[in-house]
Amino acid sequence: MNQTFGSFVRQKRMEQGLSLRGLAARLDLSPVYMSNIETGRKPAPARENLDNPYCFSVGGVGVKIEFAEGGPSLQETLTAFLIRQKSGL
Fold it and tell me: What is the rounded distance in angstroms from the CA atom of residue 35 to the CA atom of residue 77?
């Protein structure tokens, strides 16, 4: 079974020990919207719908995303970032 964006986000949130409300607050989203993403009632936000799809802040950490042809996917990049955060690197 393919993993959805919402189930991926939920899995990583839970691995980090974050509540849904806690993650929503860090991302400046409503808990209802975050829940709707995680449960698949809302799709992942499209890049066109973000204020700045390349830079944002998560819990005081600046995040910059760059898209490259043939590069790692957003899911791979986010997974690597969360693993580094969890290990303290």
Answer: 22
